[in-house]
Design goal:
Strand content: 15-25%
Number of domains: 2
Oligomer: single chain
Number of helices: 0
Order of helices and strands: EEE
Strand order of the largest sheet: 1-2-3
Structural class: mainly beta
Length: about 90
């Protein structure tokens, strides 16, 4: 599944958020995903299901992929973000 904004993000400082709402609290449940740019929904989609368990062979990368790209749109060699990421915050809601 791919969620993307129909418009490119303009140069400059922005807040990018991803909001995932799971359908029910059980392994493999699906849910809805929203991509927000500066608080405005820029894209949305549905995940049919999630993973039964957390499988993490790649640690938690921000700005690049070192083992497996999440999209066929780029390769590991071309995945490095060339801008500046000021801060990353992960918030889990119960």
């Amino acid at each position: 599944m791919t969620v993307r904004s129909p418009q490119p993000v303009a140069p400059g400082r922005h807040q990018i958020d991803v909001r995932f709402t799971i359908d029910k609290r059980e392994a493999t449940a699906g849910g809805s995903l929203e991509l927000l740019v500066d608080g405005n929904v820029a894209g949305a989609g549905r995940l049919k299901r999630t993973l039964r368990t957390l499988i993490n062979q790649d640690s938690f990368n921000v700005g690049c992929d070192t083992v497996s790209p999440v999209s066929p749109d780029y390769s590991i060699a071309t995945s490095n973000f060339q801008g500046t990421i000021g801060e990353v915050t992960v918030t889990l809601h119960d």
